[in-house]
Predict the structure.
Amino acid sequence: MANSTQILKGLLEGCILKIVNNNETYGYKICEKLTVYGFQEISEGSVYPILIRLEKKKLLYSHMINSPLGPMRKYYYLTEEGVKELESFISSWNKIKKNIDNVLEG
Amino acid sequence: MYWRDKLMLLELRLKQIRFKQQKQFNGSNLYLYKSITTYIQNSELRSIEKEEILQQVMDMMIQVQIEDKPMNLIIGQDYEEFCKSIIEEYSRGESKIYTVLNYIQKGLLGMVLYSALLMILRGVVSSSFNLGITVDYLIMVIVISLIMLPGIKKSNQEKSSLTFCQKFYMFNNGVTKSGANAFILMIFIVGLLRFVLGKILGTKVFNYTITLNSSIPYVLLIILIIFVIEGYKRMDNKGRK
């Protein structure tokens, strides 16, 4: 299962889109939420690079605002394309999940 | 105000915030943050991109520190891998042409600046207003700008986690692989250029002084090339955004 990490990282993109879609949010909060959902190991060190990728793909856009901690913080939002991508991710995931369930149930 | 000026102001502001807020870090986190800073600063990203990255990393690291959680949460097990993946994401979609032109532009800029510096230094030392540099110095400037400086940048990334004392020790006990490669390549190319030029034009050519007056058309041409490349880079950046 050498590629399992890569597959999971691909799935992380979809999960991040969903988290951003629920609320305006920022890097640390996304890491925290993924940890709560059980993605700690896989999300370690990869959330910020994924946010950059999603922004470059124009699935997210961001605004930089002063954070209460001092530095400027980027808050992320979904673009229209991001919403479409999220819908497509959810639909694909449901299909894959159903197929795998079918296989496992034999 | 043009967007370019706005970006410059933003970059300056981010830099000020970074210098002020990094004091919040405790010893080990400051060390980690400074290592990340060195790695990112020695990359080929644009300065505004570097500042944006360092600002976001700082914001996340401060929050992790305040909540007393492990830094792995955002940085992962290896900060160099973390930096590499960030740089990779920013450079994604960058064409080979862009990379080559960027390298040429920086090399040409270095050549113009270092040649000007050497001309002024020679002028000051010899108390002469007739500014110029010898062919020997010009070869050195070209090789430093095109090979040595990019090599030093790469070498600085490899040494990003070292303290000043460690770097000093390394400097006296052999440099990093990239630094050593750049140095060997530099000596080889200087030797090769001298050999070829010596064979074609004779060894006296190395002492020939190229004056500023006689080289003005070439300098203008180089500056024009630098601006044309800059124009291409901006169009390419806009296209990728």
